[in-house]
């Protein structure tokens, strides 16, 4: 649990002490301890909560200085190659041995800065999936970096401007450049990449983790794959357990509950394992699956205490308006509860159904374009005509009809509708019309390439965007997240498997289910749906009952605080119509009131610009 920060002057001019302390103050929280080192043209530092051990450190030698926010899970393997006392020393020695490809030899969660005294170069590295955040600003010869972009912006050491492109991407859920933060000249480091800074205003960015180059091993049988996945999953989870209290998400789904079961079997003292669920303790009316019944079966079988979601009035909407909480702010109450329970590590099953527990989605496409039509016929017979027609419409037809007349799978993208456009001024829409109206014809499934489908899911960055947001906000509560299903060894093994194992016998997620047989609660292991009727109904209820809160928040905005490219007359009209008694129209693309995103951006601008 740590944040890192620093300034490097590539022109070798001394770093100003007041600038370093300005940056440190902006990155840290009131309950954090600050550790800063200033050495001529560079200054490096890290901070952490007073009641938590630092997970970052600085290593110095005559050749390199390394600042690392790091956890390593293949320690034994590295110690066969070189000795080390700390993780930052391990990274330094890896760099000295393998150069800029060193990060690919480390299975861990990290963001690292390396200053090479021999060449004068500076490197920034980030782990393969982006478990630890890292942002930077580079202008002229000055490199400013920190664990999060908000610290850099708050420091005022660089010009801070709002990124209009990022705003539109979030509002319309458009494809976006991951590295672009909400601030125009502050960027994120891509996961699995390093950036090399050499001289004034020059940098080189390169990808070091390349799962697309992993060769498929066609000799691996399904039985062998099940055994090895089980072994890797147990290792990935066990290696991330911390002393003291650990928390885990429990949703009644395969991924989170699978990790929870592995933890429950490993941690003997159940007082050191607490489950956290987004499902409420109770709700009067809901449709669909009662996931709490499944959660309770797990809890009883594994003897694990579950903390269910309990929100105070308008709490869900208040968390939505936090400027720094960009993705899945429903997690905030869990962070608070885990912090109060003195949990240090919170396990999540996030990312599982993109890779290891990938469902049969995209299989129709794969079999059709690979000309595996006999196998496809078997699948149609197994799944039924109705299912097959739906899949053909999504997986196949958009790729057969020319000129993009039928859009492919949109991956959850919202429609650009007249209703949604109405909140912006016409000149602003005209200025960004290419971004807003450019048709997204990206074929996420690939032409018969199921491996490419998984890679497309990886590189659309939605997995890392959530990880970023949780990492930044969890730090203040003294917790950090662990994602065993995104472990580097687990993912690399998955990409080496014969792709047919991912749709074995046409059962969804069978590889994952089989690997956890005897570990995962059986009723959950064999469930065929992902329904969470109680959670969905509770979240919708919170949104319905927060309309007047949003209205009052909007009406409290001072005239000079409104964002200049929004249509205030339209927003006023929307605010006037808002009431908790009015039933919200849950129609895609329909604006029911003042967008919460607008209120969040107003707070963002007021706080940082």
Could you explain the architecture of this structure?
With 609 residues, this protein is α+β, with helices and mostly antiparallel strands. The chain folds into four domains: 3-209, Glutamine Phosphoribosylpyrophosphate, subunit 1, domain 1, CATH 3.60.20; 219-356 and 463-531, HUPs (Rossmann fold), CATH 3.40.50.620; 363-459, no CATH class; 539-608, no CATH class. The protein has a six-stranded antiparallel β-sheet. A hairpin with a 5-residue loop joins strand 6 (108-116) and strand 7. Helix 12 packs across helix 13. The chain is globular, with a radius of gyration of 25 Å. The two termini are 28 Å apart. The mean pLDDT is 92.
* Portion in helices: 25-40%
> What is the topology, as strand order, of the major beta sheet?
2-3-1-9-8-10
**What would you say the CATH architecture of the largest domain is?**
4-Layer Sandwich
CATH homologous superfamily label of the largest domain? Aminohydrolase, N-terminal nucleophile (Ntn) domain
- Please report the number of helical segments: 26
Instruction: Give Rg in angstroms.
Output: 25 Å
What class, by secondary structure content? alpha+beta
Strand element count: 17
Unreliable segments of 5+ consecutive residues: none
Q: Give the CATH topology of the largest domain.
A: Glutamine Phosphoribosylpyrophosphate, subunit 1, domain 1
Report, as a whole number of angstroms, the end-to-end distance. Answer: 28 Å
């Amino acid at each position: 649990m740590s944040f890192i920060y620093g300034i490097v002057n590539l022109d070798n001019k001394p770093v100003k002490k007041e600038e370093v302390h300005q940056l440190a103050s902006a990155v840290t929280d009131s309950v954090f301890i600050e550790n800063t080192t200033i050495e001529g043209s560079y200054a490096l530092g890290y901070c952490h909560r007073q009641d938590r051990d630092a997970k970052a450190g600085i290593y110095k030698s005559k050749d390199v200085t390394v600042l690392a926010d790091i956890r390593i899970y293949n320690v034994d393997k590295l110690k066969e190659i070189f000795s080390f006392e700390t993780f930052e020393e391990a990274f330094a020695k890896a760099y000295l041995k393998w150069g800029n490809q060193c990060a690919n030899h480390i299975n861990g969660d990290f963001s690292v800065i390396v200053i090479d005294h021999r060449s004068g170069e500076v490197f920034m590295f980030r782990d393969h999936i982006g478990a630890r955040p890292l942002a930077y600003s580079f202008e002229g010869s000055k490199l400013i970096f920190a664990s999060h972009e908000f610290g850099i912006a708050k420091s005022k050491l660089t010009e801070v401007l709002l990124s209009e492109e990022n705003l539109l991407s979030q509002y319309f859920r458009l494809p976006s450049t991951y590295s672009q933060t909400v601030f125009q000249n502050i960027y994120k480091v891509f996961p699995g990449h390093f950036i090399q800074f050499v001289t004034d205003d020059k940098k080189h960015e390169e990808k070091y983790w390349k799962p697309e180059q992993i060769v498929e091993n066609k000799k691996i049988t399904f039985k062998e794959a099940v055994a090895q996945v089980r072994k890797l999953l147990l290792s990935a989870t066990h290696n991330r357990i911390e002393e003291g209290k650990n928390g885990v998400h429990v949703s009644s789904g395969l991924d989170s509950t699978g990790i929870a079961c592995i933890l429950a079997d490993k941690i003997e003292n159940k007082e050191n394992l607490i489950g956290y669920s987004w499902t409420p303790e109770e709700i009067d009316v809901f449709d669909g699956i009662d996931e709490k019944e499944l959660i309770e079966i797990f809890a009883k079988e594994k003897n694990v205490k579950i903390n269910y979601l309990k929100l105070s009035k308008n709490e869900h909407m208040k968390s939505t308006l936090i400027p720094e909480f960009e993705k899945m702010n429903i997690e905030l109450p869990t962070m608070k509860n885990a912090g109060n329970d003195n949990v240090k590590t919170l396990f999540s099953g996030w990312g599982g159904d993109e890779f290891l527990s990938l469902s049969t989605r995209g299989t129709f496409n794969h079999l059709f374009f690979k000309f595996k039509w006999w196998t496809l016929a078997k699948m149609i017979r197994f799944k039924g005509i109705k299912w097959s027609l739906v899949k053909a419409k999504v997986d196949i037809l958009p790729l057969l009809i020319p000129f993009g007349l039928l859009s492919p799978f949109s991956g959850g993208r919202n429609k650009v509708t007249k209703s949604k456009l109405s909140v912006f001024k016409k000149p602003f829409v005209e200025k960004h019309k290419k971004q807003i109206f450019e048709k997204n014809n990206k074929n996420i499934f690939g032409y018969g390439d199921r491996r490419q489908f998984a890679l497309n899911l990886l590189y659309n960055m939605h997995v890392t965007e959530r990880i970023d947001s949780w990492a930044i906000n969890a730090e203040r509560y003294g917790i950090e997240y662990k994602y065993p299903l995104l472990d580097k060894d687990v993912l690399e093994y998955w990409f080496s498997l014969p792709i047919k194992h991912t749709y074995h016998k046409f059962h969804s997620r069978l590889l994952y289910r089989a690997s956890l047989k005897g570990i995962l609660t059986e009723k959950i292991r064999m469930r065929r749906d992902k329904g969470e009727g109680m959670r969905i109904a509770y979240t919708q209820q919170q949104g319905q009952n927060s309309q007047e809160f949003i209205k009052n928040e909007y009406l409290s905005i001072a005239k000079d605080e409104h964002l200049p490219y929004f249509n205030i007359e339209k927003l006023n009209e929307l605010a006037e119509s808002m009431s908790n008694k009015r039933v919200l129209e849950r129609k895609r693309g329909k604006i029911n009131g003042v967008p919460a995103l607008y209120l969040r951006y107003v707070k963002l601008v007021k706080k940082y610009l």
